[in-house]
Amino acid sequence: MCGIAGFFNPKADYTRETKKWRSILNHMNQVQKHRGPDGSGTYLSPSCGFAHVRLKIIDLYTGAQPMLRKKDGYEFAIVFNGEIYNMDELKAGLIAEGADFETTSDTEVILAGYMLHGTAFIRKLNGIFAVAIWDSAVSKLFLFRDRLGVKPLFYTKTGDTFLFASEIKGLLAYPGVEAVLDHDGLCEIFALGPAKSYGKGVFKDVFEVLPGHCITLGHSSYTDEAYWTLQSRPHTDSLDTTIEKTAWLLEDSVKKQMLSDIPISTFLSGGIDSSLVTAICAKELKKQGKQLNTFSFDFTGNSKYFKSNAFQPSQDRPFVEQMVAHCGTNHRFLECGNAEQLKCLYLAVNARDLPCMADVESSMLYFCSKVVPYNKVTLTGECADEIFGGYPWFHSKTAFETDAFPWSSDLAPRQVLLDDALIEDLHMEEYARAAYDKTIHETPILPEDTPEEKRRREIAYLNLRWFMVTLLDRMDRTSMYNGLEARVPFADHRIVEYVFNIPWDMKCTDGVVKGLLRHAGKEYLPKDILWRKKSPYPKTYDPAYEKLLGKQLKEVLSSPLSPIRTLLDTKKVRAFLDSPSDYGRPWYGQLMAGPQMLAYMLQVNYWLKAYHVRIV
Questions:
Q1: Is 239-405+464-530 in CATH node 3.20.20.80?
Q2: Of the four listed, 189, 591, 593, 614, which is most buried by Cβ atoms within 10 Å?
Q3: CATH class in words for 2-180+201-226
Q4: How do residues 570-592 score in pLDDT, each as one tens digit?
Q5: pLDDT category, 539, cuts 50, 70, 90?
Q6: Which pTM does this prediction carry?
Q7: Which residues are catalytic?
């Protein structure tokens, strides 16, 4: 994993002032150094500049970037963030076609493939990636992003210069690029946040390369084309065949994603998703005489304060212990206290460049920092719920019948602290509804779909395009902020393509949530784990944490220098702080309730101040 950045201007000649432009590239590298603490490099041509920071996972010694190759007097340069899991088979095919290789890196596989096949080669990649390629033969810059948006890639334009970077901070490191928030940006924060519209970067004139897209820039041309889209197809496999194929796809994806030149680990919650990934990894490593490292997360004192509810029916530890015994892993139980969680609340904003999932994100950032001393690569169970229908809203009659994002259908809780004038100005309901309608209209539907199956597809597609991406962003930023590479085997595009088209009665076999996945995992898991009722990522239930948040928010509002004061109603906030918060009714997803609302507002204030955000 790495961080990439660069600029392109067909009217420039960067080779005339190389010291100046390399200094800018180095600065773009510096602000993203956490993504690649093991090395850095730059490349400069007359029209294009590349910057790269490297986290060494594959080809530890000869895989430095930017990578440059020459052919027929032309230069081809690449910067790449991600991993290509089918690199060995692709490389074998390229060698058969006459390609020569100087390294054992997947970066060179992408570049060699492009030089032989052009942009069509990107369709052959199985992996997670954000790629920039400069082709001097045609004087064009190409930007690619993986099919599901696992790896980030943002861009903007200043004058005639096009800029790109793995993180927004990379763009802001370029001279003259400001952090500006307009009406739409405020709606992104307060109507949709911590989600954001795909393709947008929240800041004015900041965008992201869409998942599955390729942007091409030439001297007088710009195109943005999809090289992959999710398609609806009739599902003709029997239930037994569907279970068998699902099991094979998952096992193959996990095995592919174990590719690494350094030891790997897994996150283990004791739920079916992470347990399946762990069981497959542990089994494969045992064949090699190796033991898998695993990590689980919880909060200090949660055994005392935890109360079972519809969203979190059970604690993880007993199930983790059972899985550790079952798989024979080398396990570490990690805990986060109130002080650490509060400190990381602001570091999480630095990592995401935006207000995010409050303590759900800050705690993950903290846990990732504790994993890195042991392992720099980990596999997670993220994305299974979005793909296999694990969340409550997949099964809720209300969500099924409501034309709104099912994880955030009621905007009233979002407005409880906001200034009335701001609420009136933003028209949050209209903004959220327009974002929702856009995705509904994009949902791939079959002509023969019944109204019920059509709605099932819509809910599944909403989750893939919105909720899953929010969690993927959380996983990427919190891990990469600590120099940790987190992989997501469930987000293999082959799994998504296949499972998206499986009828609901098969996905929810026998009426059991994620029944298909449970049947597919029978070979690997004990029954208690296999049929455990879903319990999401943990959060703290310590009332002292909420008191800390309330105290900090009061301090923020008491300072005339706090930028969020103009956006909040002080009387509303104080009334909210004086009344008990409801842990049972989240305003976003399953985990973000009253305390997380306070934490989110603290993040917004910090973000506005730390990023010198100018509201227009």
A1: no
A2: 189
A3: alpha beta
A4: 999 998 888 766 545 688 998 88
A5: confident
A6: 0.96
A7: 2
